[in-house]
Design goal:
The chain is of the alpha/beta class and 332 residues long. It contains eleven helices and twelve strands. It has a single domain, classed as TIM Barrel. Strands 1-4-5-8-9-10-11-12 form an eight-stranded parallel beta barrel, surrounded by eight helices. The protein has a two-stranded antiparallel sheet with strand order 6-7. It is globular and about 70 Å long. 42% of the residues are buried. The structure holds ligand PBG.
Length: 332
């Protein structure tokens, strides 16, 4: 690109001199419409517990969910993502609890669609919250078996759609799962149910606090590197995203977020589908703890979220969603 102009005629500081002018020329502004709030659900009644590795985040029993959902509604956050903390006794090798129409996720979807129909619901399709080994698929002969797993994921996705889930989000990284899910949804007349594919999901160290939150950390004895992507690679994302779009993905997700902004921007430039980013638990806890210790100012939250928009994401899944929405409302 040719540089136009020169000092002293050109002074770039001229456009930065006052707040109103900076606002006027700003390119990326965060609104509540850009946010998705993940919510953790636990079993039992009348309980809200804290999560040690994720300060400020809680797990809710179904009867307590309205407390957080009312806030989501008031602050007009378009969608929530549900994650279950499954009791140990319900976990097995094939994650069969995923197919129980009365599991925590199914109950959560039904509650939202009945009492808060204006809130969009997104659900993970993957077996890790339900397996005794914490992996996203079934283990057969000591391997995560791709083709056996997608047979279960297909059923899990259909069940979620039947409960009223609006956005089915496979986060398992098995090959071919988007295709089978789109097929089963269409066959059952769920042609309007969206697929948000975690097309690009790296085997990341930044998922630690989440695994604590859903109770898979202590179960997981081996890494997820045989199915999640190698963080040394980036050209592979074109195949991952391309295949998922071909198989029927409506939206694609990049995960983790902040340390993969290069990937978001590459995808946005090369594909014309909406791209979303997941600011994952490790990123959340790093920023949150630094704010608590007064090492960072609260405004770092909006700065971090804005970087996703600059990179090309249309929305961000973030544990900060409510904090941000409150802040936006206050400043309007
Ligand atoms: C599981 C899943 C993970 C996250 C979302 N869905 C963790 C994993 O793959 O181990 C991570 C979210 C976060 O860290 O906030 N399929």
């Amino acid at each position: 690109m040719k540089i136009i102009g020169s000092f002293p005629k050109t002074r770039l500081r001229r456009l930065r001199k006052s707040g109103w002018l900076r606002n006027l020329i700003s390119e990326n502004n965060i609104s509540q419409n850009d946010l998705v709030l993940p919510i953790f659900i636990r079993d039992g009644r009348n309980k809200i517990d804290t999560i040690k590795s994720m300060p400020g985040i809680r797990r809710y029993t179904i009867d307590k969910l309205p407390i957080i959902l009312k806030q989501v509604k008031n602050f007009k956050i378009p969608m929530v993502a549900l994650f279950p903390y499954t009791p140990n006794k319900k976990k097995d090798n094939s994650g069969s609890e995923a197919l129980n129409p009365n599991n925590l996720i199914c109950k959560g979807i039904r509650l939202i669609k009945k009492k808060f129909p204006e809130i969009g619901v997104m659900c993970d399709v993957a077996l890790d919250p339900y397996t005794s080994h914490g992996h996203d698929g079934v283990i057969i002969n000591k391997k995560i078996d791709n083709d056996e797993t997608i047979k279960i994921l297909e059923k899990q996705a259909l069940l979620q759609a039947q409960m009223g889930c609006d956005v089915i989000a496979p986060s398992d990284m098995m090959d071919g799962r988007v295709g089978v899910i789109r097929k089963i949804l269409d066959k059952n007349n769920f042609t309007d149910v969206c697929i948000l594919s975690y097309a690009v999901k790296y085997a990341s160290n930044f998922y630690g606090p989440f695994r604590d939150a859903v109770g898979t950390k202590s179960k997981l004895k081996t890494s997820k590197k045989t199915y999640q992507m190698d963080f040394r690679n980036s050209s592979e994302v074109f195949r991952e995203v391309g295949l998922d779009i071909k198989e029927g993905a409506d939206i694609v997700m990049v995960k983790p977020g902040l340390i993969y902004l290069d990937i978001i921007s590459k995808i946005k430039k090369n594909f014309n589908v909406p791209v979303m980013a997941y600011q994952v638990s490790g990123e959340y806890s790093l920023i949150k703890n630094a704010i608590k210790k007064k090492l960072l100012d609260e405004s770092s939250i909006i700065e971090s979220i804005t970087s996703f928009k600059r990179a090309g994401a249309c929305a961000i899944v973030t544990y900060f969603a409510l904090d941000i929405a409150k802040k936006i409302k206050l400043s309007n």
